[in-house]
């Protein structure tokens, strides 16, 4: 018989049996395990030990992987470069250009038998094809550049994804040691430790549990927490959250075989099938009303793929899950402030550009027809078709230049670049737009422990047997009986996942693992000279009778263990004022037992607990109680049978107090400075903590949150609630508005208080600019507040999976000063985009006006189609790269935040845009009408359409590019600074691109000939062009001298609340279903919007909206898929996933059409005949998809 690692190779239970086992719940599950022979028998069949875990040998691990699979769900492969090229080609404006260029090419080879064609024309005809080909090549360049940008973006996000996944670890027991392993390495047979706040990475059966409650809403849609235990409901499933308690489980299913994995696999197959079906439908239907999508069908990805980048063409706005907690349902992540403004701007520019482009074509064609057929009275010749196509090409090119495709690119580049750099500053950004929102933050609500403090806790004071020690006592100072009770009580009554490990190098501080407060207490035990581990080895977790785990309501933890000579002992520890109230006895002088009267309690609080708290210490009390079968002493209770452990009120009374300890958690050295920076930058920092009010006040003063002469409020949770609720107990916004502006510290607060405060500040309209709130959190219960905040920061080290999942940014070092860096980067993103806008709009205005007026006055655009495409490339792709990658400077923290209502284009920027445009237009029209006389060259006006390039028009083109290039340097400053050169050399990307563009321009002018319609210039003419270019820098100084304050406010663009912009075209989740039918876009608008496909899908279609970098904890938008899951949870055989089932296909089809309707602007279809929301039982995939292992190894 084959053996592996000294055991049989054949397991006692098969993969199929395990999958079937995991489908049972509740009592059924208990019975199924009993049929196998109990949980220990199951462990035997899997060759694992409940206490030792797996052996950890390589051969064993490999064999388990082969037999039961690994904990990874294979992702969908990324899009290939060619797919991205194909998607970039779908842009309507590019398609029109391609067609026009092809027609032009064809016509240039079309030689009608023309009787009186002059000989000279023959010469020109040779080159007729060059322009058509040049346009085609330009289009190809634009497409490849776009595709390459998308490709590198996709790669970047996948890299980020892998980095995040590597961070997600889980505790398992291997070879008798507790170790943290990556979620992807978990195997069937592993013994995993489950604790409060975990997101379970695999399915398993409980071996032992304490007060375990799990939130299974991600699988079932039921928001009630489910009680779990070996004898109630032993099955715990992947993708669910542990909301309370702890336990130990044996892993029975991983990866695609786990319950979440089965669903994902089914979804994946179902979604692929549904895509194929949609394609068929599209081919088969010619009826416009039933057309599903405009220019591109988005592929709805199955959530399992943990898709990193939704490519431009895909909508990723799906309906929010409705089954999550009430807090979530009330709040949809709105579009970020910047996006709302950019979206509106892009659409407005587009409208203007299209109008001018159409006018240009009409004017050119009318002029041509009147001149040729009316004035010259020539008959129609087929060669004239070529002239008409050329006019069309010029019009389309104007449109290409007018539509700022560079905008979404600049936003994406700037954000992607910042995200990459922020990783180095310990900010792991999970939602791209959070990065930019952070720049506008006006308030930060921070936790105390671990964020403002070091989270390295140590006991520095203790009160035992009426002796207050400010140094660590020795065991001999404490009466023996009390000493034993204290060491035993702390060692047993703390999570066995909390440990103190030796430092990596001798001389290093010991490493605290698990709950830091418990580690401080364990350190205290070690300091007394007792090994807590030997006590734990003696009393293992399976000997516990009952555990009352810590939660925010209890604020204490209790453990019941059997006494050696019959009966039980309860140990408890927790917040001192709470434990004190439950104590009836205390050990007094020399360890004598005394009654603990009310007056003694008050004295103890006044003389011991308050002074400790005022020193910034966290006070913890340890107490115990005995239940004995025989004669009971005065502090013991007589029992006959087993007490009713569920009656917590009666169990946790008449305790005997053992000691009170003061735990110090020092303020991080860099925090006071970081808080000063925030205050200087106009950001209010508030501290929200569960700690005692005195402790909170002390720490807040040390941090600098409370400044001596300020007018501020410090409240406890109870008082806060009293002030903000009316007589009926309802929260009133006007009452919150009286409290929050002055509130600086909220102590003894519950998670609900934190949520209420955050919501109150966000909804408040007291301050003129509306507050943008950032929140930090680490606990499971911080989820609602993190989700509600504009930016949620979770702690990377101390944070629970649930908190990380609700957050937007993860602080990998749990440090407050990293938040300041996030603010700096966020402001930098906003400024980078503003710089790009200032530059781009100047070019847009000039190019469009020149083409238009040129067409009217000279019957030909001074800037040719290919030239405009080159300018478009400079200003879009290259400039967005150059300006979006500026480094942030500390000066960014010296100004106030913009808030929600600040105009996107300030008056200073508008002054620069209009001023520079005026200068450029004067120069270009000067050159156009009198340049030939001044520079003594042949005029280019009034030439035949097929005539060769002239030096006159080449100079105009060259001057325009020179002015644009030098204006790019001007655009680096947007707040009216005079020194535009400052910091230029710190940005290599900027100067490299600038020099590259300059060299390319020289080559185009000197050697571009027919392809670029240029004629080589002499040195003299070059110097004139450069002179006009440098003029923009001088002119820029003049513009800066004009006082901005004197300008009318109307010049700023984008003022007001972003909601105003998003209302009409709510590009977020609810597309048109919430808008009355008369507000639905007209067909004309639809066509127009499709014309902007690429632009919209990038900026609007939410390229950044909830730009999901699905993380082990992603707020992933896969709800649509999940509704389906419930359909098959009920109707289909979930094990073998019969994909062909018609009802499933039907549901999926409706589902898709629905989600497409909600998808994005570029794909508006006539959604009149789509049925109301499908009534399919909800499953909240929000968590399911966030399930870490499903996303490993993208």
From TrEMBL:
InterPro entries: ATP_Ca_trans_C (IPR022141), ATPase_P-typ_cation-transptr_C (IPR006068), ATPase_P-typ_cation-transptr_N (IPR004014), ATPase_P-typ_cyto_dom_N (IPR023299), ATPase_P-typ_P_site (IPR018303), ATPase_P-typ_TM_dom_sf (IPR023298), ATPase_P-typ_transduc_dom_A_sf (IPR008250), ATPase_P-type_domA (IPR059000). GO terms for cellular component: plasma membrane. Residues 53-72, 278-332 are annotated as: Disordered. The chain crosses the membrane at residues 88-109, 129-148, 349-373, 393-417, 836-855, 909-930, 950-969, 989-1009, 1021-1039. Its EC number is 7.2.2.10. Pfam families: ATP_Ca_trans_C, Cation_ATPase, Cation_ATPase_C, Cation_ATPase_N, E1-E2_ATPase, Hydrolase_3. It is found in: Cell membrane; Membrane. Belongs to the cation transport ATPase (P-type) (TC 3.A.3) family. Type IIB subfamily. Catalyzes the hydrolysis of ATP coupled with the transport of calcium. This is Calcium-transporting ATPase.
């Amino acid at each position: 018989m084959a053996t592996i690692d000294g055991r049989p190779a054949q397991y006692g239970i098969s993969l199929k049996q395990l999958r079937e086992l995991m489908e049972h719940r509740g009592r059924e599950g208990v019975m199924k395990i009993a049929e196998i022979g109990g949980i220990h028998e199951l462990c035997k069949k899997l060759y694992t030990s409940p206490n030792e875990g797996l052996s950890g040998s390589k051969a064993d691990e490999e064999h388990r992987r082969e037999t039961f699979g690994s904990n990874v769900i294979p992702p969908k492969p990324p899009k290939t470069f060619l797919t991205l090229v194909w998607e970039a080609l779908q842009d309507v404006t590019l398609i029109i250009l391609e067609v026009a260029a092809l027609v032009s090419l064809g016509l240039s080879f079309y030689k009608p038998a023309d009787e009186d064609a002059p000989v000279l024309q023959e010469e020109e005809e040779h080159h007729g094809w060059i322009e058509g080909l040049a346009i085609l090549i330009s289009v190809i360049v634009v497409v490849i550049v776009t595709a390459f940008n998308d490709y590198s973006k996709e790669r970047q996000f996948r890299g980020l994804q892998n980095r995040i996944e590597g961070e997600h670890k889980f505790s398992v027991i291997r070879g008798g040691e507790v170790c943290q392993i990556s979620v992807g390495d978990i195997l069937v047979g592993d013994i995993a430790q489950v604790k409060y706040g975990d997101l379970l990475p695999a399915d398993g059966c409980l071996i032992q549990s304490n007060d375990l409650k799990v939130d299974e809403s991600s699988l079932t849609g039921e928001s009630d927490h489910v009680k779990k235990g070996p004898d109630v409901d032993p099955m715990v499933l992947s993708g669910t959250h542990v909301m309370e308690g702890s336990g130990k489980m044996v892993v029975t299913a991983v990866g695609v075989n786990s319950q979440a994995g089965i669903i994902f696999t089914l979804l994946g197959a179902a979604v692929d099938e549904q895509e194929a079906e949609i394609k068929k439908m599209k081919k088969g239907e010619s009826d416009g009303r039933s057309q599903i999508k405009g220019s591109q069908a988005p592929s709805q990805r199955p959530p399992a793929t943990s898709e990193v980048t939704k490519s431009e063409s895909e909508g990723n706005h799906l309906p929010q899950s409705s089954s999550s907690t009430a807090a979530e349902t009330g709040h949809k992540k709105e579009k970020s402030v910047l996006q709302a403004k950019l979206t509106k701007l892009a659409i407005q520019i587009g409208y203007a550009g299209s109008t001018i482009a159409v006018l240009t074509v009409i004017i050119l064609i009318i002029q041509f027809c009147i001149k040729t057929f009316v004035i010259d009275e020539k008959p129609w010749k087929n060669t004239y078709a070529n002239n008409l196509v050329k006019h069309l090409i010029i019009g389309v090119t104007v449109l290409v230049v007018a539509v700022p495709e560079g905008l979404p690119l600049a936003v994406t580049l700037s954000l992607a670049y910042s995200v990459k750099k922020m990783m180095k500053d310990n900010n792991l950004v999970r939602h791209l737009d959070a990065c930019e929102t952070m720049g506008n933050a006006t308030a930060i609500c921070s936790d105390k422990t671990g964020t403002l403090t070091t989270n390295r806790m140590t006991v520095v004071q203790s009160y035992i047997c009426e002796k207050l020690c400010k140094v660590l006592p020795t065991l001999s100072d404490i009466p023996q009986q009390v000493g034993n009770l204290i060491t035993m009580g702390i060692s047993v009554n703390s999570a066995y996942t909390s440990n103190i490990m030796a430092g990596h190098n001798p001389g290093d501080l010991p490493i605290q693992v698990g709950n830091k407060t418990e580690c401080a207490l364990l350190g205290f035990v070690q300091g007394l000279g007792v090994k807590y581990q030997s006590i734990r080895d003696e009393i293992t977790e399976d000997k516990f009778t009952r555990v009352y785990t810590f939660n925010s309501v209890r604020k204490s933890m209790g453990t019941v263990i059997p006494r050696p000579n019959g009966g039980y002992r309860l140990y408890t520890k927790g917040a001192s004022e709470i434990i004190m109230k439950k104590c009836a006895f205390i050990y007094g002088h020399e360890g004598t037992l005394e009654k603990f009267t009310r007056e003694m309690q008050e004295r103890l609080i006044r003389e011991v607990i308050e002074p400790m708290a005022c020193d910034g210490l966290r006070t913890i009390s340890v107490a115990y109680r005995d239940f004995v079968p025989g004669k009971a002493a005065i502090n013991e209770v007589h029992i006959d049978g087993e007490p009713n452990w569920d009656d917590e009120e009666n169990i946790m009374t008449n305790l005997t107090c053992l000691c009170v300890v003061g735990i110090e958690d020092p303020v991080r050295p860099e925090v006071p400075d970081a808080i000063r920076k925030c205050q200087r930058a106009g950001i209010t920092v508030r501290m929200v903590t569960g700690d005692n009010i005195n402790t909170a006040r002390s720490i807040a003063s040390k941090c600098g949150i409370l400044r001596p002469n300020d007018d501020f409020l410090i409240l406890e949770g109870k008082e806060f609630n009293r002030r903000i609720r009316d007589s009926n107990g309802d929260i009133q916004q006007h009452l919150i508005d009286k409290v929050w502006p002055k509130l600086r510290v909220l102590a003894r607060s519950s998670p609900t208080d934190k949520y209420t405060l955050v919501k109150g500040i966000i909804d408040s309209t007291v301050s003129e600019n509306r507050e943008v709130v950032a929140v930090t959190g680490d606990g499971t219960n911080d989820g609602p507040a993190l989700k509600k905040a504009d930016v949620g920061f979770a702690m990377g080290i101390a944070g629970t999976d649930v908190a990380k999942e609700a957050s937007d940014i993860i602080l990998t070092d749990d440090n407050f000063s990293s938040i300041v860096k996030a603010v700096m980067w966020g402001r930098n993103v906003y400024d980078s985009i503003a710089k790009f806008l200032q530059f781009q709009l100047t070019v847009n205005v000039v190019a469009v006006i020149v083409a238009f007026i040129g067409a009217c006055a000279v019957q030909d655009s001074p800037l040719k189609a290919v030239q405009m495409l080159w300018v478009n490339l400079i200003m879009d792709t290259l400039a967005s790269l150059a300006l979006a990658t500026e480094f942030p400077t500390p000066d960014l923290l010296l100004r106030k935040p913009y808030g929600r209502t600040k105009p996107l284009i300030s008056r200073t920027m508008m002054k620069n845009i209009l001023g520079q445009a005026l200068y450029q237009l004067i120069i270009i029209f000067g050159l156009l009408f009198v340049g030939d006389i001044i520079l003594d060259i042949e005029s280019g006006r009034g030439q035949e359409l097929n005539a060769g390039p002239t030096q006159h028009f080449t100079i105009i083109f060259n001057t325009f590019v020179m002015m644009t290039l030098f204006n790019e340097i001007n655009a680096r400053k947007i707040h009216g600074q005079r020194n535009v050169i400052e910091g230029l050399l710190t940005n290599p990307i900027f100067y490299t691109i600038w020099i590259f563009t300059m060299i390319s321009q020289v080559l185009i002018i000197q050697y571009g000939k027919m392809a670029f319609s240029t004629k080589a210039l002499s040195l003299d003419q070059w110097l004139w062009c450069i002179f006009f270019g440098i003029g923009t820098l001088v002119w820029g100084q003049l513009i800066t001298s004009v006082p901005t304050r004197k300008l009318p406010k109307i010049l700023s663009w984008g003022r007001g609340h972003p909601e105003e912009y998003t209302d009409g075209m709510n590009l977020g989740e609810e597309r048109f279903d919430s808008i009355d039918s008369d507000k639905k876009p007209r067909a004309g608008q639809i066509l127009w919007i499709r014309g902007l496909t690429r632009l919209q899908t990038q900026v609007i279609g939410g390229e950044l909206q909830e730009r999901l970098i699905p993380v082990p904890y992603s707020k992933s938008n896969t709800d649509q898929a999940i509704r389906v899951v419930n359909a098959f949870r009920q109707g289909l055989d979930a094990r073998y996933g019969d994909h062909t089932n018609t009802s499933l296909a039907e549901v999926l089809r409706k589902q898709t059409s629905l989600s497409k309707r909600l998808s994005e602007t570029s794909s508006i279809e006539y959604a009149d005949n789509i049925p109301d929301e499908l009534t399919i039982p909800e499953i909240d995939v929000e968590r399911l998809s966030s399930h870490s292992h499903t996303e490993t190894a993208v």
